[in-house]
Amino acid sequence: MPAFNTNPNMNRDYLQPSLLWLSKTLQESRNCDILTSMKLNRLIPVSVWVWGSLFLTLETIAISSPPPSNIPGSCHDISCDQLFHTLSETWPEFNLTCEGDRILSLQVYEHRNRGRRVVLACWNREVDDYGAREGSSLITLPFPGEENRFLSSWPDSQPSAEELLNTYPEEIKNIRFQCAIESGDINILVSEHRPEADLQCYFQAGVTLVDIDGDYVSDGENSRGTGVDRILGTFPLP
Known about the structure:
The protein is α+β, with helices and mostly antiparallel strands. 37% of the residues lie in helices and 26% in strands.
């Protein structure tokens, strides 16, 4: 084996190319690490933003989606649970519960005066041999925000209608509201023997509703019940 040359100059000349190669390799490796780190520094915030945006989007969808409704019926663009909660807070003076183990349902419909109304009905749990279920109306209430349109029609063609409406506007508005709760119509009864007028609300009581497709929405009536007339107010004729 040849002896290693002890000449310093010769050893330096011999080692210099190797040292230069090693230095270059280390520098390239360092540059690669720096470049990789820069790329990671750029990618990490982007990844965090993407995943954060996705999480927020999913969270927003979860929050904005209406919760499943425990109260059946047809309530248009809101859940029947939400509608029932609003009605209960707005009208605490009314009992909005069904007796016994009957099932409460809500149905929103457009009245002929273009105001929306909510019918609360109570349904039997059992069905007949044909799968139909019977129920009855509990109360009718205005759709939230449309209370001013929730009035029974005023019989303009009946005697003293205009005079009474102009003389007692607030009292008559209240009576029309009470009659609308029963889904009734107003009649003006004028007696020849006294200078007064009775405001009568005529409605159907004891109507038997029927649901034939299991959605707790009335598909018709098995019985029209009985006609009821109730005097809601008496006013001196103007």
